[in-house]
Amino acid sequence: MFLNVLHSKSEFMQNNRFLNACLKKPVDCTPVWIMRQAGRYLKEYMAIREKMPFIEMCKTPDIAAEVTLQPLRIINLDAAIIFADILLPLEKMGIGFEFSKEEGPVIYDPIRTERQINKLRVIEPEEDVRYVLEAIRLVRKELGNKVPLIGFSGAPFTLASYVIEGGHSQNYLLTKKMMIPEPALWRKLMDRLSAVVIKYLLAQIAAGAQVVQIFDSWVGCLSPVDYSNFVLPYMKKIMRALKKGRVPVINFATDTSGVLGLMREAGGDVIGVDWRIDLDAAWKRLGYTVGIQGNLDPAILFAKPEAIKKRVRDILKKANGRRGHIFNLGHGVFPGTPVDNVKALVDMVHSLSAR
């Protein structure tokens, strides 16, 4: 099934523990990578960011490739993740946005009507987000076969929440006011976004991504019945379509204790969980036939090394040496996180889990 990541005899992956964990194969120690590992906690990143707007960094392939590679030069990580943003495909769909320092992403004309949805186009990745694909190609060339590269996309629900709300939201009320009272309108928007996610991720795989992660960061705001009715069909559709890519898929979301079973039904070779549920409890709900990613609270990285080590031991104990565990934070690393603590975390995971 996973021909794209099972390399030919002439292509030996020097560090394949991350890919093996995705496929629930034996590993020499637990692999670890960190969401937002390329970013605002690194001085190397900030040196570039001071000279260039974030969106320009994403759209400049050699810069995006450089930022992707920065953390791997100083931290013993088991995977790279392409430097990009989940909102990038929206622009060529016809949805304008900017990144505000104060408010984060701001959508210029939030989607609220059928007329607006009808005007949205399904992107052609090689034309519309070619810069992301070029960055993937550059990173793969630079990495060689040292560690695998992860591509990613936002999930339809999370993308929909941004474009309806106009940015971040505390309660997702506008999203739910479309989703529940106007289900036909919701389905039309989700169909359009799902088509974009499928094309975008398959294009990333074709460009060289060896694993893809779908970020459904805000779907935890939903009840199980709403997830089942308004999200599950689209996630299933995406997971079915991605099988042709023949690489592992990570299904990640936060605050999802109430919908873990539904996420498992949606699909994915690995399910990402945050720190709001113990890892062993989450894995038990998911079933041990699927891999699991997580789940350290990123705030712990501001603590002293002994406190970090205690939390790492606890998570590894809950994983109990089962195949398929990928150590990660429960969400992205915070700005200002001490780099030495991130280095120590990775080394702790490797040493404490060595088989």
Top-tier CATH class: Alpha Beta
Largest sheet: 7 strands, parallel
Distance between the termini: 27 Å
The number of E-state strands comes to 9
Provide an overview of this structure.
- By secondary structure, the chain is α/β, with parallel strands linked by helices.
- The protein has a single domain (17-353), classed as Alpha-Beta Barrel (TIM Barrel), CATH 3.20.20.210.
- It has 17 helices and nine strands.
- Helix 15 (279-286) links the parallel strand 7 (270-272) and strand 8 (291-293).
- Helix 13 runs parallel beside helix 14 (260-266) and helix 16 packs parallel to helix 17 (339-353).
- The model is unreliable at 6-10 (pLDDT under 50).
Summed up, what is this model?
The chain is of the alpha/beta class and about 350 residues long. It has helices at about 15-20, 45-50, 55-60, 60-75, 90-95, 115-120, 125-130, 130-145, 155-165, 175-180, 185-205, 225-230, 230-240, 260-265, 280-285, 305-320, 340-355; strands spanning about 80, 95-100, 105, 150-155, 210-215, 250-255, 270, 290-295, 325. Residues about 5-10 have low confidence and may be disordered.
For this entry, give a set of tags.
single chain, 355 residues, alpha/beta, TIM Barrel, seven-stranded parallel beta sheet, two-stranded antiparallel ribbon, 47% helix
Please give the structural blueprint.
Blueprint: H1 17-22, H2 43-49, H3 54-59, H4 61-74, E1 80-81, H5 90-93, E2 97-100, E3 104-107, H6 114-119, H7 125-128, H8 130-143, E4 149-154, H9 156-165, H10 173-179, H11 183-207, E5 211-216, H12 224-230, H13 232-242, E6 249-253, H14 260-266, E7 270-272, H15 279-286, E8 291-293, H16 305-319, E9 325-326, H17 339-353
